[in-house]
Amino acid sequence: MTRITKQIAALLGAGALSLLAVSGADWQAAAQQEGLQRIVPPSREIVQYSFSPIVRRAAPAVVNVYVQRRVRTFSSPFANDPFFRQFFGDAFGQPSERIQSSLGSGVIVSPDGIVVTNTHVIRGRGEAEIRIALADKREFDARVLTQDDKTDIAILKIDDGNQRFPTLEFEDSDTLEVGDMVLAIGNPFGVGQTVTSGIVSALARSEIGNSDSQVFIQTDAAINPGNSGGALVDMSGKLVGINTMIFSQSGGSQGIGFAIPSNLVRLYVQGAAEGRKVERPWLGARLETVTRDMAENLGLDRVAGAVVARVSDNGPAAQAGLRAGDVIVHVDGFEVSDARAAHYRLTTRGVGRTAKLGIVRNGAPHEIELALVAAPQPGRNDVRNLAGQHPLDGARVSNILPGIADELGLDETSGVVVVSVRRGSTAARLGFLPGDIIAEVGGVAIANVSDLEGLLATRQRTWLVAVRRGDKVFNLQVPG
Q: Is-contact 391 476, C-beta < 8 A?
């Protein structure tokens, strides 16, 4: 056996997937070492470029997620007119039902049938019926274990305890590098399971998310409507991300797709399997993304990092020694480009552990060890689910506690804030959002939830509600 044959044999000996590593450049380099300009490959497999071994391993665990809902509608053309609804209520018009369907993808991550998908795939009004269709055409009912709107992660469970399902193993998404090849597997446009290939175009994209702990893997593997919830797979056939969104001006793939990193997804899978909610670490400080002006004033050599804008007394950040004006540039050795990246690193590190923060203070580098703890739980008198004949019907409100302020990015340390709004409620129709601060009702300042609940219990001919959202104040006037 010649030296070149031994080199090729060594390449092939690593397994079927290593055939991808035998490029024309490798072959030519080996040939030149033998003193040859052109040689004939000894087998067809040497020149065959195929992802089929990876697809055979990964595709059986990628499923279609079908969601059906019964949506109640009214046949009267005036049924949705606020004026008529005010007098006749929801019973006005002839009620009817229609079936609303949606389609997405999902990934089985445990043999007993735990499935990861996107929250937006299963989200909607009304009772949902969820069906999971496997690549081998078997179908099963499924139920929701947990869903999180902020991260767009939903965990489902296939309702068949006697089956063992094909699974995809998690890969550490922090091992990805820009330029790595990946496959996207899902069900775009409902045409059936489809595999596309591409590379990792960028890492830690955070400018496009809705949550302060969201960062994304960017890829040019074609992702289209219906791919949401599907798998982003590396060249070892492991799950590195859950495809979640695209950037498109046409509605189709334009080579810019985004996936939720597997390290964040794995936290939610573990929490769902253990029957607990994922807790984000409570920092006890507010972080802001470093701007160009900040970088110059803070003596930074680049426009990157998360600046500490505020530190709460007796919180974890204060106890660790963080100060306002410090700039977090690393978390556990990973570079931090902005505030969201910092929150993501702390979230994936996990409550109950510690994180090493690399900071810049007055232009000099320092290291700080931060204990990651859960936020203090609100007391019984701190939170209310509001219901009644008033504008805030369907809103969940809370006194502004340190953990709530961190979660919602608030500067305020007192008052009452909306933490969630039930879909279809009066509060939702009027446009209330999480993070809205209820400043006044009927001209009376609101100090706590007890004040608010007492004022809402009174009858009003006209409701006047002052709402502070960011740096703006809105005055809402609603008939009683």
A: yes
